Amino acid sequence: MARGSRLARLAALGLLGVLTLSGCDMPNNEFWRFGWPEGITEESEAMRELWTGSVIAALIVGIAVWALIFYSMVAHRKRSDELPRQTAYNLPLEIAYTIAPFLIIAGLFFFTVVTQNEVLDRSEDPDETIEVNAFKWNWQFVYPDTAGEDGEPVDTIGTSTEIPVLVLPTDRVIRFEVASADVIHSFWVPEFLFKLDVIPGNENGRDNVFEVTVREEGAYVGRCAELCGTYHAYMNFEVRAVSGDEYDDYLDARESGLGTYEALVAIGQPGAATSTTPLELFQEKNLDQLRETDG
After folding, report:
1. Does the keyword Phosphoprotein apply (predicted)?
2. What is the pLDDT of residues 102-114, one digit of tens each?
3. 169 bridge partner residues
4. Which residues contact 112 (CB under 8 A, 6 or more apart)?
């Protein structure tokens, strides 16, 4: 009974350590990411901390299990033909190893829900709003708070020979309102560590909405992550994250009548996408169709 009580106390102590470490802020460096990809948004950092805490919790449980296995191998190795003292029907021990896994799962579930709520949280007044329209097989990005020379909001739309560039500011809360014109698509930027299925018929502002705060400038490829038809693989776009001042200058240039390419060049950015290019096969198909039309 005494040995069973000690094991029960040891299990309880290990469980307390797992739950405590799962809720701690984890350092952000290559080692502590445990293979988790490096994101560029505040939300991706919350997910990375959940992953780090979960891995540490799993390591603690694994080390405890292996320690008990080796302890049993050494302490209960065969010394004679006489059976050692049996511990069947040890009620405290059985209660401990029945409750402990449930509490571990409950703890991981709790922190997962907390992180999920943080990632999906929507602010009352985001700094920027972007309308994303998906269609077979490309993207349109609309800046609804702007007005071009024709009075309509500034937008960027991709073609079979041109990758659409979505320009975003860093260090601002950006709301994406995503819609589909036909079938289910999926808005995915790998560096966001987040994707959202775009289900047609869901009203913008209700289901197809999420927010991010980008922390690092750069060019990042975006993709459709839902098989949406024949040319699904060609449905790429680029996120161009720039400083807040450059973003404002970009919108001013667009409102003055410049296109996406010219406005990007005007703020010192490459005019065309740099993270991905249209697939050559698709360009050839498009050119063949044009030749057939002309001929």
Report:
1. no
2. 998 998 899 999 9
3. 242
4. 50
Enter the pTM of the model.
0.74
Q: Kind and range of the H or E element at 214? A: none
Neighbours of 20 (CB within 10 A): 12
- Residue spans in the chain of domains classed CATH 2.60.40.420: 128-294
pLDDT confidence of residue 27: 56
- The length of the chain in residues reads 295
Give the whole-angstrom CA distance, residue 42 versus residue 240: 17
Thinking of the domain 128-294, which architecture would CATH place it in?
A: Sandwich (2.60)
CA–CA separation, 21 and 53 (whole Å): 6
Only one residue has tokens 């299925």, namely 197
Among 116, 112, 118, 111, smallest CA distance to 213 is for: 118
- What value does the mean pLDDT take over residues 188-211? 81
Indicate if the pLDDT at residue 215 is higher than 70. yes
Identify the CA nearest to 214 among candidates 111, 116, 128.
128
Identify which has the larger pLDDT, 76 or 24: 76
The string of pLDDT tens digits covering residues 15-33 is 555 555 544 555 556 667 6
**Can you state the angle between helices 91-119 and 42-75, rounded to 10 degrees?**
170
Sheet of 185-189: strands edge to edge?
165-169, 236-242, 218-224, 185-189, 194-198
Q: Give the sheet arrangement for strand 173-180, strand by strand.
A: 154-157, 138-143, 128-135, 173-180, 209-213
Instruction: List 180's β-bridge partners, or say none.
Output: 134
Confidence of residue 130 (pLDDT cuts 50, 70, 90): very high
| Calpha distance 271→269 (Å, rounded) | 6
Residue 102 φ/ψ, nearest 5 degrees: -65, -45
Measure the CA–CA gap between 295 and 291, rounded to whole angstroms.
6
Beta-strand relationship, 154-157 and 138-143: antiparallel
